[in-house]
Amino acid sequence: MAKEDTIKTSGTITECLPNAQFRVRLEANQHVLIAHLSGKMRKMNINVVLDDNVEVEISTYDLTKCRITYRNK
User: Fold this and answer.
1) Is the pLDDT of residue 3 over 80?
2) Whether the predicted model's global pTM rises above the 0.85 cut
3) Dihedral of the CA atoms 43, 53, 67, 10 (nearest 10)?
4) Which residue ranges make up each domain of the chain?
């Protein structure tokens, strides 16, 4: 998946799932998506917990899955 083929938005972590996956509620339209951590966040051991505000990239091929790219403070 190329970086140009993504939709960037922000959301909030609502549930922590196994295998470093999360449920994210988008701020724009309140949809709930399944998200996983991006490679840089996994490599740098950035912890994401419940109720964190995060920035995500949604795949244009499957609008139910996304990737967490940044954790807002």
Assistant:
1) no
2) yes
3) -140
4) 3-71
